[in-house]
């Protein structure tokens, strides 16, 4: 693997020093972008989210932020991933620091860009409810921080239950998201996604759907309401829109239809945007 770090290319070497706060404390952020034929999908949304999260968490902005897209494209080319689908990851850490929780005010943020093959998109999934809860009061629920242990454990529980992905409720007992995706339910014909205030990350595909489909509601759901859904899909920048075929063993026969409806809405919006 060839990675870019703070202006230099590193091949098959250590990319972070042992005292980097991203490594020792999870003090940092990341973004994952889809690349298709060497081009970045919806890069501006990802770059804006990274900058906004860095500001919210008091992280210094990356010194090479204005070059991110060019660096990402070159990273794809150097790894021979500029054909077909690939994943670009941007990792921003708080940089090097002495031991302890307090950041060194003179520390420089570290920016790492890596590329890898992208997973298959649009594949059906089986869902299982995880006992791990999203905490709406935690900054980690609203930003893509380097500490993803809640999602890791939720997904592990889902796999142990024979499912592919986890449905995570929040500490108030309401549905929030999947381990690595946003959720869109269809309940009695209404398309609904939980709001960010429920401990939900502002996913880029979720953002695009809300802009493209004004009929899609953003509101709180009770567990009972969610369990009345006849269709449920997961949205993720890399994996696209994935239909849930079942949730805790209950079939969701309308998920394929909901997937097609959402994809059509995105396609129409993008076609309209391209006209002017």
TrEMBL record:
The keyword Secreted does not apply. Its EC number is 2.6.1.42. It catalyses: L-valine + 2-oxoglutarate = 3-methyl-2-oxobutanoate + L-glutamate; L-isoleucine + 2-oxoglutarate = (S)-3-methyl-2-oxopentanoate + L-glutamate; L-leucine + 2-oxoglutarate = 4-methyl-2-oxopentanoate + L-glutamate. It comes from the Bacteria. Pathway: Amino-acid biosynthesis; L-leucine biosynthesis; L-leucine from 3-methyl-2-oxobutanoate: step 4/4; Amino-acid biosynthesis; L-isoleucine biosynthesis; L-isoleucine from 2-oxobutanoate: step 4/4; Amino-acid biosynthesis; L-valine biosynthesis; L-valine from pyruvate: step 4/4. GO terms for biological process: amino acid biosynthetic process; branched-chain amino acid biosynthetic process. InterPro entries: Aminotrans_IV, Aminotransferase-like, BCAT-like_C, BCAT-like_N, Class-IV_PLP-Dep_Aminotrnsfr. It is an enzyme of class 2 (transferase). GO terms for molecular function: branched-chain-amino-acid transaminase activity; lyase activity. Its cofactor is pyridoxal 5'-phosphate. Keywords: Amino-acid biosynthesis, Branched-chain amino acid biosynthesis, Lyase, Pyridoxal phosphate. Belongs to the class-IV pyridoxal-phosphate-dependent aminotransferase family. Acts on leucine, isoleucine and valine. This is Probable branched-chain-amino-acid aminotransferase. It comes from Phenylobacterium parvum.
């Amino acid at each position: 693997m060839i990675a870019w770090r703070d202006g230099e290319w590193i091949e098959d070497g250590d990319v972070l020093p042992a005292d980097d706060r991203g490594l020792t404390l999870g003090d940092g952020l990341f973004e994952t972008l889809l690349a298709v034929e060497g081009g970045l999908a919806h890069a501006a949304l990802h770059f804006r989210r990274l900058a906004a999260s860095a500001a919210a968490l008091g992280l210094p902005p990356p010194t090479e932020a204005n070059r991110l897209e060019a660096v990402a494209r070159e990273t794809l080319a150097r790894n021979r991933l500029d054909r077909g689908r690939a994943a670009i990851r941007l990792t921003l850490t708080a940089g090097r620091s002495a031991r302890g929780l307090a950041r060194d005010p003179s520390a420089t943020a570290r920016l790492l860009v890596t590329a890898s093959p992208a997973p298959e998109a649009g594949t059906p999934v089986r869902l299982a409810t995880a006992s791990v809860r999203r905490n709406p009061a935690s900054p980690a629920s609203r930003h893509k921080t380097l500490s993803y242990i809640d999602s890791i454990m939720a997904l592990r529980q889902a796999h142990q239950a024979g499912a592919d992905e986890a449905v995570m409720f929040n500490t108030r007992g309401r549905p929030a998201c999947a381990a690595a995706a946003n959720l869109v339910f269809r309940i009695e014909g209404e398309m609904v996604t939980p709001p960010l205030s429920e401990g939900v990350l502002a996913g880029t595909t979720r953002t695009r759907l809300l802009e493209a489909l004004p009929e899609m509601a953003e509101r709180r759901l009770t567990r009972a309401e969610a369990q009345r859904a006849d269709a449920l899909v997961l949205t993720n920048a890399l994996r696209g829109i994935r239909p849930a075929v079942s949730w805790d063993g209950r079939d969701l026969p309308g998920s394929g239809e909901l997937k097609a409806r959402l994809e059509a809405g995105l396609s129409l919006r993008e076609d309209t945007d391209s006209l002017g």
